[in-house]
Amino acid sequence: TEKMASAEEKGKSVVSEGEKAPEKEEEPFSVEILALIKDAQAQHGLRHGDYQRYRSYCSRRLHRIRRSLHFMLGHRNRFQNKKITLEKITDVRFLHLVLMSAEQHWGYAMELRQDSNTEPRKRFHSLRKLRRAEQFAIQLQELCDACPRTDARTKLEAQAYAAWMKGNRHFDLRQWKESLDSFRLALTIYGRLATALTDEDLRALYTSHADDISPNIEYCAYQLAQEHGETDIKELMKLRQAAAVSGKQDMLTSQIDMVLAQVREKEADKLQEVTWHGQLVPVRNESVRVFLVHVQDVQQELERAKTYEARMQVYDGFFGDCQQAVQSLNGDIRADSSAKRSQKSDSYISQQRQLLSYLSYVKISKTAQRNLLMARHLARQLPDGEKLVGDDVNSLSAEESQKQPKPEDLVHLYNVLLQNVNDMLELPGMADDGELSRPLSAQRLGFQAFRCYYIAESYSLAKKWREALALYEKTSLYIREAGTHFAECVTSSIKDDTQAVDRLSGVVKGRVCAAHASSIIDVEELGSRMQDLAVTDKPLLDRLNMLSADPGLTTRQPSLIDFPPSFQPAPCKPLFFDLALNHMEYPDLSERVEKQAQGFTGLFRGLFWGSKG
User: Fold this and answer.
1) 529 — phi, psi (to 5°)?
2) pLDDT (tens digit, 9 = 90+) per residue, 135-171?
3) Residues 365, 384: contact at Cβ < 8 Å?
4) What are phi and psi of 355, to 5 degrees?
C-alpha cells in the first residue's frame, strides 16, 4: 500500500507539473540615462555651477539605492567591496548604482578642477577621479550590452554616455585625437536618438546635449589642425564664444582661455607704445600689454555675439582683465614713487600716469557701452521700443522678456551714463583734446534727451499730461542741441548715437501730439462727468428718509458723511462771578467771642511774645 501511495503521489506531481501555467515574460530594463542625469544636475547645484552640492547628492542617492537593494558595502566597522556583475542584475536599480557612481566621481573631478586654479596640485586628483568616472561609464555600457533584459535605447544611451566620458578625460589630458573620436561617437548617437524619437521633450534634450558637444569637437579639430601651424586667435575667440553661449562647457572654456592667454602674451611683445592725446606713451608693464591686446579683440567679439547674454559675458571678461591691469600699473607707480627721485624717474612716473589715464578712459568708455546696451535692451520691451532701439539687440531671453520694465529704470540707467560721460570729460588732458571731448559732449546731450524722454513717459503713464507735454518739448530742445553738436564731429564712432537721436526725434513728435490730445480729451470727459453728476448738498447720513436715485453712491468715493464733521453750536456751562463780595461790610462779632483766662505763664508769654488773640 505504501508503494501504491508513493506511485500516486508521483503521478499527481507529474500531472501538476504538466498543468503548470507558463511563466510571464520579464519586463525589460529601461533607463533614460541623459534625462535622469540632466534632471538631477538641474535640481542639485549644477544650474549654478555648484559641483560639491551635486557630488553630495550623488553620494546620498547611492546610499539610498544600496539600502533599498540590501546591497550595502559591509558594516559600520568593516568595509566589504561588492562588485556588480551580470548575475546580480535582477533589478534596474543596479544600473542606477553604476550610473550614479560615475556621476559622483565626475562631479568630484569638476569640483577639484575649479579648486585647481588656486591649488595646482588638485589637478592630479581631478584626473584620477575623472578616470574612475570613465571606468564606471564603461562598466555601465558593458552591463547594458550583456544584459538581455536591457532595451535597445538604453544600450545606445549607455554607449553614448561612455563615449562622452572618455572624451572628457582625453580632453583634459590634451589627447586631441582620442577626444575627437569619442566626442564624434557621442554626437552621432545622440543625433540619431533625437531623430528617431517622437517625444518632443526628449528630442529637445538630445539635441541640446549634441549642441553642447559640438564646440568640443571643433576645438579638438582646431588643435589637431594647428599642431604644425600658427594659432589663429580669431578662430579661438569664435570657439570661446560658442562655448560661452552654451554655458555648460567649463572644461572647454578653461582650455580656450589658457590658449588665448598664451597667444596674447606672444602678441603683447610687439606692443610697445600707445597714442594718447597725440603723444606716444611707452608700455612696459607686461599685464598692461596683454590687456591692450585684449582691447583690440573686444570689438570683434561683440560683433560676433548675436544675443544680449553673449555680449554681457564679453563685457564681464573684459572688465576682469581691465581691473587686473589697472592694479598692476598702480603697483608700479607706487613702487617708483617710493624709490629715490631723479629727473629720469620723474619722467617715467609721468608716462605711467598718462598710461593710467588712458586705461581709465578705456574702462569708463566700455562701462558706458555696457550700460547703453542694458538701456536699449530694456527700452526694447517698452511701447515704441522697436522704433527707438532698431536692430541693436537681436533677441531676448524668455525669462527677461516676461519682466516688464518701467520708464524709471531707464531714467536710472541714463543717469549712470551721464555720470560715465562726465567722468571721461574730467580725465587729465581731456579738455585740450577736442577730437575726444566734442563727441563726448554731443553724447551727453543725447543721453540727456533720452533721460528727459523717459521722465516724460513716467508722467504720461500717470496721466499728468501737462507735465509730460512740457518734458517732451524739453526733449525736443535737447535733440536739436545734440544734432548741432553731432554735426560738428567728424569721427565715425558717433554714427550709432546720431541714428538713435534721429529715431528719438520721430518718436517724440508723435508723443507730443498724443499728450496734447489726451489732455484735451481729459478736460472734455471731466466736463461731461460734471454735467452728469447729480449734485446733492447733503450726505447720505443726513437724508436717510429721502428716496433718491443718486449715481454718486456707486462711485469709488460716495458721499456718505461729512468728514471731518462740521461745527455745531453747543450750550456753555454757566459761570458765576461774585463781584459784590469786595463791597460788603460784615458786622463786628468780637463781643460774642469767649475770653479765656490767662495764668502766670500766659501773662508772661503775652508780655514778651504777644497774645494770640
Assistant:
1) -70, -35
2) 999 999 999 988 888 888 889 899 999 999 999 999 8
3) no
4) -65, -35
In one-letter notation, the amino acid at residue 420 is N
Q: Which of 512, 557, 526, 515 is nearest to 539 (CA)?
A: 557
**pLDDT of amino acid 4:** 44
Which residue type does 409 have?
D
Q: What angle do CA 230, 234, 240 make, to 5 degrees?
A: 110
Amino acid type, 607: L
Give the separation between CA 452 and CA 46, rounded to whole angstroms.
Answer: 43
434-461 vs 407-425: helix crossing angle, rounded to 10 = 160
Nearest-angstrom CA–CA distance, 239 and 206: 21
pTM to 2 decimal places: 0.53
- Cα–Cα distance, 201 to 222 (Å, whole number): 32
What is residue 572's three-state secondary structure? coil
- Locate the DSSP E strands across 495-578: none
Distance CA 294, CA 284 (A): 16
| pLDDT score at 139 | 92
Evaluated on CA atoms 591, 597, 601, 604, the torsion sign reads positive
Amino acid at 22: P
Distance CA 328, CA 608 (A): 106
CB 94 within 8 Å of CB 84 = yes
Sign of CA dihedral 218, 221, 223, 226: negative
φ, ψ of residue 29 in degrees (nearest 5): -85, 130
CA 29 distance to own-chain centroid: 41
Which residues lie closer than 8 Å to 603 by C-beta, 6 or more apart? Answer: none
CB 442 within 8 A of CB 489: yes
Q: Find, among 33, 75, 30, the residue nearest to 206 by Cα.
A: 33
Sign of the alpha-carbon torsion through 46, 99, 28, 67: negative
- Alpha-carbon separation of residue 211 from 184, 199, 218, 238, 246 (angstroms): 12, 18, 11, 15, 8
CB atoms within 10 A of CB 4: 8
Length of the chain: 613
Measure the CA–CA gap between 292 and 298, rounded to whole angstroms. Answer: 10
Judge residue 316's burial from the number of C-beta atoms within 10 Å of its C-beta, 0-12 exposed, 13-18 middle, 19 or more buried. exposed
CB 237 within 8 A of CB 222: no
State the CB neighbour count (10 A cutoff) for residue 295. Answer: 17
Q: How far, in Å, CA of 51 to CA of 114, rounded?
A: 9
Q: What is the pLDDT of residues 123-141, one digit of tens each?
A: 899 999 999 999 999 999 9
**386-433 pLDDT, tens digit each:** 777 765 544 444 344 456 788 899 999 999 999 999 999 888 888 888
Which parts of the chain register pLDDT below 70?
Answer: 1-26, 227-272, 338-345, 390-403, 490-493, 523-537, 549, 595-613
Cα 288 from Cα 285, distance rounded (Å): 5
Counts of helices then strands in the chain (DSSP H, E) = 20, 2
| Strand (E) or helix (H) holding 559 | none
Check if the beta carbon of residue 484 is closer than 8 Å to that of residue 513: no
CA 111/CA 479 separation, integer angstroms: 54
Beta bridge partners of 274: 281
Distance in angstroms between the alpha carbons of the first and the last residue of the chain: 154
Give the cell for residue 598.
Answer: 490767662
